Amino acid sequence: MLTHLDSQGRANMVDVSDKALTVREAVAEALVRMRPETLQMISQGEHPKGDVFAVARIAGIQAAKKTSDLIPLCHPLMLTSVKVELLAEGMDAVRITARCKLTGQTGVEMEALTAASVAALTIYDMCKAVDRGMVIENVRLLEKVGGKSGHFVEGEDA
């Protein structure tokens, strides 16, 4: 049984040493809502701080690699791939999709969620001087592949 509690009820890191190595992949997303003029400024490369999407992409990748430093009891993982995509959605939002992959003994859901979250926070940080009303929403796991629990797709019954 996997649990974050030891026999005395204290929090600890789950021992995954008996788990098989499998290919594991997770996809998460976040949405940043903003004023249309803010999105236009970003999309046209006119932000005074530079390329907002490039900085947010790098921040998301770095965050995925540092997830175990941020989330208590997360295993440090040797990720083999981290991709962060940022796309304008409509006139007032940016959709961030983060995909993390490895061959290992534990999943990468937290890494994908962390990447999407930090990329969203980076957009907020870079644009807050022009749009303090931005909203980060719908941070969620979209898909998980690999491991004992199998394949998960958001919205499908487990």
TrEMBL record:
Superkingdom field: Bacteria
Record field: catalytic activity: (8S)-3',8-cyclo-7,8-dihydroguanosine 5'-triphosphate = cyclic pyranopterin phosphate + diphosphate
Gene Ontology annotations of biological process type: Mo-molybdopterin cofactor biosynthetic process
Protein species of origin: Pseudomonas guineae
Pathway: Cofactor biosynthesis; molybdopterin biosynthesis
Annotated binding of substrate, by residue: L73, C74, H75, M110, E111
Pfam families: MoaC (PF01967)
Self-association and partners: Homohexamer; trimer of dimers.
Gene: moaC
Family the UniProt entry places it in: Belongs to the MoaC family.
EC number(s) per entry: 4.6.1.17
Official protein name in the record: Cyclic pyranopterin monophosphate synthase
UniProtKB keywords: Lyase, Molybdenum cofactor biosynthesis
Coiled coil stretches, renumbered: none
HAMAP family assigned to the protein according to its UniProt record, in alphabetical order: MoaC_B
Active site, per annotation: D125
Function noted in UniProt: Catalyzes the conversion of (8S)-3',8-cyclo-7,8-dihydroguanosine 5'-triphosphate to cyclic pyranopterin monophosphate (cPMP).
GO function term, MF aspect, one: cyclic pyranopterin monophosphate synthase activity
Annotated Molybdopterin cofactor biosynthesis C (MoaC) domain residues: 13-147
